[in-house]
Amino acid sequence: MNAMLVGADTLGNIPDVLQNYGITIHRHLSGRNSSHQRKVDRLPAGTDLLILFTDFLGHNVMRHFRELAAEQQIRFIACRRSVCALKQSLTGAGMCEQPCAACPQRGGGDKPIKRKR
């Protein structure tokens, strides 16, 4: 799965966390540079997931990227730029960390995992 990340100047351990979920970084925009804030009309081809780091983005930039994802029917998550917040958002979106035998998303069994809430 290819993800576009918007927000955060540096990613730190985030690429490692995404790799554990089977996600590769397709493109990263810091959102701080004025060229990154200009209105783009499409997300890059091959993008399967949009990740917005909310503590580094303005409301208008976030809204624009959310609308682009909705138009192109691309899933998106929004979270703070921390490993814990990212893991929680990915798990909440139904993605599993590490391949597991019971997970249909990772080629495992045909029964979904029941999670306690």
The SSE order reads EHEHEHEH
What's the β-strand tally?
A: 4
Termini separation comes to 26 Å
Q: Structural class, please?
A: alpha/beta
What portion of residues is helical?
25-40%
In the predicted model, the low-confidence regions spanning at least 5 consecutive residues are 106-117
Biggest sheet: strand arrangement: 2-1-3-4
Mean pLDDT: 82
Biggest sheet features? 4 strands, parallel
Q: Calculate Rg over CA atoms.
A: 15 Å
Strand share of the residues? 15-25%
Based on Cα principal axes, name the global outline. globular
Number of helices: 4
Pfam families: DUF2325
Family: Belongs to the UPF0751 family.
Organism: Pseudogulbenkiania ferrooxidans EGD-HP2
Protein name: DUF2325 domain-containing protein
Question: Brief overview, please?
Answer:
The chain is an alpha/beta fold.
Report what the structure shows:
- This protein is of the alpha/beta class and 117 residues long.
- Helices cover 29% and strands 18% of the residues.
- It is built from four helices and four strands.
- It has helices at residues 14-20, 34-37, 59-71, 83-92, and strands at 2-6, 24-29, 49-53, 75-79.
- A four-stranded parallel sheet has the order 2-1-3-4, with helices on both faces.
- Pfam families: DUF2325.
- Belongs to the UPF0751 family.
- It comes from Pseudogulbenkiania ferrooxidans EGD-HP2.
- InterPro entries: UCP020408.
